[in-house]
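Budget justification aside, the reviewers requested a transparent look at the raw inputs and outputs of the sequence design task funded under Objective 1. We therefore reproduce one unedited record. The lines immediately below are the structure tokens for a 254-residue chain.
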């Protein structure tokens, strides 16, 4: 493993493209025995009722050709125990689908994860390190380094801190370059006017006050709020504001 990550990753800087940053990370970690690398970013990781939301940013290096499709299109993301564990801890953790698991993975593993575990074992990707990267705004990124060659648990464990530090460096470098749509959840899509009306409603304004603020009629504002409530699956207007806050739609930059 490298001794001075910042020197070995010369050129890693804020706003750099994800592809270039992932290439640098791959080159840094390959000598340590890691072969497959993934990064993902979810502005809102879960729905309000606990369902999994696909990330808006996703990249793999050296993965099997079918892996991206399985994870993104066939539901494997929602069955991945590593992704589930990443929502419960903030420290890097090891995982292995052969032999002894780490403590967090022991708590998470169940029969519903079997399709993912079987695939990873069949492709030789049965151990690695995953780094959860929680953001202050509630977004979650994860970075995973996988070993396709045999490595015992003690061998993986000694790389935990180094891989964790490198993963955070990667995220800090690429996050400023994310496009606006990558910073918004795709799970709920409101029109700009619906979002604006909900934001004003969240500030305690009545329908009449919102109509005055936006120079629109009361029926028009009511229509926007009703539409937003239906799209969010809310029971009423107050519930709609609560759900909009969960999906971070009330943020002025959303």
């Amino acid at each position: 493993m490298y001794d001075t990550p910042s020197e070995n990753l010369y050129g890693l800087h804020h706003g750099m493209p994800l592809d270039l940053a992932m290439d640098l990370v791959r080159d840094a970690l390959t000598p340590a025995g890691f072969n497959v690398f993934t990064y993902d970013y979810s502005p809102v990781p879960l729905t309000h009722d606990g369902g999994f939301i696909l990330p808006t940013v996703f990249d793999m290096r050296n993965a099997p050709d079918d892996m991206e499709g399985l994870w993104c299109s066939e539901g494997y993301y929602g069955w991945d125990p590593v992704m589930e564990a990443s929502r419960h801890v903030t420290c890097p953790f090891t995982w292995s689908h052969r032999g002894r698991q780490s403590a967090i993975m022991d708590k998470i593993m169940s029969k519903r994860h079997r399709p993912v575990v079987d695939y990873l074992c069949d492709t030789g990707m049965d151990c690695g390190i995953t780094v959860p990267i929680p953001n202050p705004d509630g977004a979650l990124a994860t970075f995973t380094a996988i070993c396709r060659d045999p490595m015992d648990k003690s061998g993986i464990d000694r790389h935990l801190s180094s891989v964790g530090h490198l993963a955070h460096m990667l995220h800090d470098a690429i996050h400023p370059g994310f496009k606006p749509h990558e910073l918004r959840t795709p799970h709920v899509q409101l029109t700009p006017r619906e979002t604006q009306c909900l934001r004003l409603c969240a500030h305690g304004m009545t329908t009449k006050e919102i109509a005055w603020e936006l120079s629109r009629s009361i029926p028009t504002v009511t229509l926007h709020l009703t539409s937003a409530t239906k799209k969010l699956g809310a029971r009423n207007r107050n519930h709609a504001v609560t759900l909009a806050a969960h999906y971070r739609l009330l943020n002025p930059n959303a």
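Confidence is low (pLDDT under 50) at residues 1-8. The chain is about 45% helix and 15% strand. Computational costs for records of this kind are itemized in the attached budget.
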